[in-house]
Every structure is written in structure tokens, then in C-alpha cells.
Amino acid sequence: MDLLLEKPLDSLSKEVVFTITGSKSESNRLLILKALYPELEIVNLSNSDDTIHMQEALMSQKNHVDIGHAGTAMRFLTAYYASKKGLVTITGSQRMQQRPIAVLVDALRSIGAKIEYVNEEGYPPLKIEGGHINDTAVKLDASVSSQYITALMLIAPSLENGLKIELIGKLTSRPYIEMTVRHLQSIGVTVNWSQIDISVEKDDKSPSELISISSLNSTSQKSLTVESDWSSAGYWYSWVALQDTGYQLTLQHYFKESVQGDSKLSEYYEAFGVQTSFDNNQLILTKRSEKVAQRIVINLVNEPDQAQTIFATCLALGVDAHLTGLHTLRIKETDRIAALKDVGSRFRESVIETTQDTITLTCIPLEQHAEPVVIDTFDDHRMAMAFAPVACRTSLLIKDAGVVTKSYPQFWNDLKRVNVNITEI
Ligand SMILES: O=C(O)C1=C[C@@H](OP(=O)(O)O)[C@@H](O)[C@H](O)C1
Ligand SMILES: C=C(OP(=O)(O)O)C(=O)O
User: Fold this and answer.
1) What is the pLDDT of residues 235-263, one digit of tens each?
2) 135 classed as catalytic
3) Which ligand 2 atom is nearest residue 332's CA?
4) For 34, 258, 274, 320, which has the most beta carbons within 10 A of its beta carbon?
5) Residue 134's domain is classified under what CATH number?
6) What's the gap in Å between 27 CA and the centre of ligand 2?
């Protein structure tokens, strides 16, 4: 499905309230924890494909599991299956079979796990014979993906003697580890994190005892409420940044004290004139000022999923940008650095330079192009959604627009609500 997005002709509605479902990162952590502690109840679970894949895999009795494009499901389930008795082959989409997993597999093998590569060494699919983990200390490279570390942390409380995880190299995507720590602690698991070691203690309490000392936004003792997804909120920050002063929209179910690192968006978008306020767990975004920064420099090593969104905001507003800390982008749903350079260069106002871990954009404010600008999405949900707000400057043709279901299935319906004309081509 390709979609033509055209600039809204009528005046933009100002009273828009969006309900985005729970964070897919939080949801997929909590689903693993629920598999270990079935009494746990999860409120406001994500409706994303990634979370549905995780749920289906955990419910499945089959010994062949396909998790599609879901990176967290692939990494967390690899550790989960290694920790539980049984034989499972886990695979994913074509792209998933190109996303490296050796760091996690090596770490799990070093503590006894039996895992084989079905095709190419270092990449899914994996054949896992579970129930052989027998050691209590593991080391791994922390610079490739934080998801490998989270995967080990999530299974640690169910192991005979817990797990001490030594982090080697420069930690990437740190807030995602902090999120895992918070969720483990919220169900009563003891986690100690010194400079380079994370120790997760084996729980010898019963699950209900653990959950009853839960501290994270509990609606009841056994129930944890997932905050809505900040990574998806990014597209609405970008949308508001491109509107006139006074424009406002509201997103439901966000907490002032967030465990999601992408909540840093509220600071980043101040440079684009967007003010954030909270009212009873509603996030209110207001365009306060037409004055925006002329150039921004941001290190996104902690918020890699916002790189495309911030890039597209800058492109539309004509703000020069130097984005750093992007080394993980090459192994995500697509090589996001290459994708941004390719698609970004289709806008005549921009000049883009890239390295292994940076993108530099030099641009002038975007004007209406004679033809729709083609946005190839390369199987990456964030390519589609990050560029979509740019439609209020010039028409876009979003290729393979169905990719959004990976994280935000109702995105195109929400975009219609702010009067973007959307036509299926
Ligand atoms: O743990 C998580 O939920 C995630 C961690 C990040 O990945 P990396 O640690 O691979 O950067 C992020 O990009 C991804 O969307 C979700
Ligand atoms: C990188 C992402 O997800 P994952 O690695 O979990 O596939 C993402 O959602 O941007």
C-alpha cells in the first residue's frame, strides 16, 4: 500500500486528543516477566505488531516461532527459551535474519546455553535447546545493542543463582537498561548496578510476594500500568513543531516521571518552539514560538529511535542539524543512516553528509515541490512516520505505508484527524 499525503487545505483542527497505546519496549519486557510470574497483570499493553508477536510466541506450544521484524522479541525470547526446558527454533523477517545476535548467543553459550545457528553464523534463525544455563556470571560487549543486556537481565531472577552481568565497552542505549532495572525492581527483584556490573538476584520469594512489593504505577498490587509510547509521541512533537504558534494537541496516558528514555523529546523539541505540559497524565504539546534554533547538535546515543524524527523536523523547518551517537542505526529495521541520506537527498533544499555514526544536514526551509516527494520506507516503520509530518510543507508519496503497524498501527488514522489528505495509490 502506497499513500499520497497532501497538505491540509482547511484550517487545522486544534482540539485533537490522541490515545497511543503502551510503550512496546515496556510491554515486551513485562510480557517476559509475566511469563515468569503469571500473576502479574499488565494494563495498557501496546497494540503494536512487535508486542503481538511477543504475546503469540509466549502463548505458542509450537517449537517454531517467527517474530517478524520485532528486535526486542528476538533478543528477549532467545534468552527466555535458553532459560526454559524445551527445543525451539526462533526466526524472523528477512531483515531480522540480517540483524546480528552473536553477542547475545556467545554470552548465553558462555553460561551453558545450547544454541545453534540454523543458517548463517551470528544471525537468526536460532535453534535453542533450553534448560542448560548453569553459570552465574557473564560478560558481553555493551556497545552493540542494549537489548542483549536486557534479555539477560529479564531471565536472571528465574535462574538458580541469579546473574552477574559484566559490561564491556561503551554502553549504548542506556535508558533502555534503566527501564529494565525499574521493571525488575517494580516486581520486587533486587538489582545492583555498579559502573560495569549489573547483578540481578535470584528471587526466592514467591511471585505474589514479589509483586506485592511492586512500586511502579500500580493500579492494584499485581497490576502494572504501561505508560503510552514516547517513541510514537515523537511524530506528534514533530507535527506540532511545524504548525503555527498556539497550535496544541494532547496525548493520553503519559507520566511526568517516565521510565522511557525517549521522554527526553520534551527537552529536544524546545529548540523547535514546542512546549510540553502535563495535566492528569495527559501530555499537552503547544507550539509556543515561531522562533526556532538555526542549528542543533544532539548526541542520540541514548535515544536512537528519535534520529529519523528529529532529522525530518529539521529538514522541514530548515534547521541545520548535526546528529551524533548513531552507530546502532545501521543494524536496526534498515540501515537508517543510509536510508536518511537517500530519502533526505530527494528534498532539493537539503545537503546531507554521513559517517558511521553521524548525520549532518544543511538545509533551507522546505517549500512545496512540483511533484510529491517519494519516501521509500525500506521495511522501516520509522521512515514512514518520521517523514509524514513533512506533508504539511509538501506532498509526499509514502511507499509501503503498512510498515507502521510494527509500532503504531493506527498512525494513518490519527494523521487523518489532523486533516492531512491521505489517498491510497
Ligand atoms: O530495549 C528496547 O526496548 C529497545 C532498545 C533500543 O535498541 P538498541 O539497544 O539495540 O539500541 C531501541 O532502539 C529499540 O527500539 C528498543
Ligand atoms: C529499533 C527498533 O526496534 P527493534 O530493535 O526492537 O526491532 C525501533 O522500534 O525503532
Assistant:
1) 999 999 999 999 999 999 999 999 999 99
2) no
3) 1
4) 274
5) 3.65.10.10
6) 13
